Structure formats: structure tokens, C-alpha cells
Amino acid sequence: MTLHITGDETADQLLTDDPLALLIGMLLDQQVAMETAFAGPLKISERAGTLDAAAIAGFEPDAFAELFSATPAVHRFPGSMAARVQSLCTAVVEEWGGDASAIWRRDEPDGAEVLKRLKKLPGFGEQKAKIFLALLGKQYGYTGAGWREASAPYGEEGAFRSVADIVSPESLTKVREHKRAMKAKAKESS
């Protein structure tokens, strides 16, 4: 299994190999293109010299924000997103012993439990947690009971709603079309 989200083989391989990279990519996936968000962990790793949760949590905040601001920036809001990544890494260290995958692996949790665990993380609301759970189930090998139901509607088979459904350039196009349609619909009803 190899993820194909960013269009950059090295960035996608890091997301595939490192659960913390995938979690950080999901956190960064707001107000920037998905490819930019999920390429962020590689930039962080290259600039910080590590993608270890404890090391990132312990990074001097201003220096970490500077690392986010270097060109090309990790995110369009480098200061606030750097702080969010550090908060996320702190939670991974304190709650999960520095192992991001423990969120969906420790004690063999079902989908509802993983969703609950994700929603407790800094920066993960209901929608982001459901999308990430769908990504785990559809592409990352998570098989906990009820994950499709817990991640609904993102876990739906054959849907093209989110990053969980991106496996090729064609599926990326379909996800973008879905998002545009949802934005247009939201604009109409406001």
C-alpha cells in the first residue's frame, strides 16, 4: 500500500511510512490545497531534521514557526499552524507515548472509539476526524469494526468526497469536483 495524495513520490512515501506524517498532513488540510497540506510533513521533516513527536513538541515555538515560514511555506498561516502541529505532537506524546498509530491500534479499537480518540486531538473536529478515519479504513489498512459507519459519509464505498478517496489523478479530480459542488450548494443556501 502506497498513498498517492501529493503528486510527490517522496512526500507520499513519508505519508505511507510514518503515521505521524499522515496525522500532521490531515491537520494541515485546511485553507490550502490538499497536496500542499499533505506535502507539509516532508517540509517539516527536512527543515527540522526529524518528524519525531517529542522533538517537534519540544521545539522552541518561534523557531518552529520560522521553519514553517521559510519559502516555500509549509502552510499559508505558518504561525498558527506551527503552533497547532506542536499541540498535536504534544498530545501524541502525552496520550499515545509518541506513537501516532496507537490512536487506531492500541487495544484494537472499533471505528467509534477511533473517532472518539481523533476528536480529542487538537485541531481535529468532527468532520476532520471522520475524514481521517475514512482515510485509515480505505487506504491505510485499518479494519476496526464499524469504521465505515463511524466515518460516514466519508467511509462510503465508491464516494469521492475527501482525501480518503484520492488514489490517482482521476480520483483527485472527482474529489475536487465534489468539493466545488458542495461550496456552490452552501453559497446558494446562504
In a nutshell, what does this entry contain?
The chain is mostly helical.
Folded structure, characterized:
The protein is 62% helix and 0% strand. It is mainly alpha-helical and 190 residues long. It has eleven helices and no strands. It has a single domain, classed as Hypothetical protein, domain 2 (Endonuclease III, domain 1). The chain is globular. The model has no long low-confidence stretch (mean pLDDT 95).
What attributes does this structure have?
190 residues, mainly alpha, Endonuclease III, domain 1, 11 helices, globular
Largest sheet, described in full? none
State the low-pLDDT regions, or none.
Answer: none
Secondary structure: helix percent: 55-70%
Care to count the β-strands? 0
Number of helices: 11
The average pLDDT value, as a whole number, equals 95
- Termini separation comes to 41 Å
Task: Detail the topology: elements first, then pairings.
Elements: H1 9-17, H2 19-28, H3 34-48, H4 53-57, H5 61-69, H6 78-96, H7 102-105, H8 111-119, H9 126-139, H10 147-150, H11 169-188
Helix pairs in contact: 1-2, 1-3, 2-3, 2-6, 5-6, 8-9
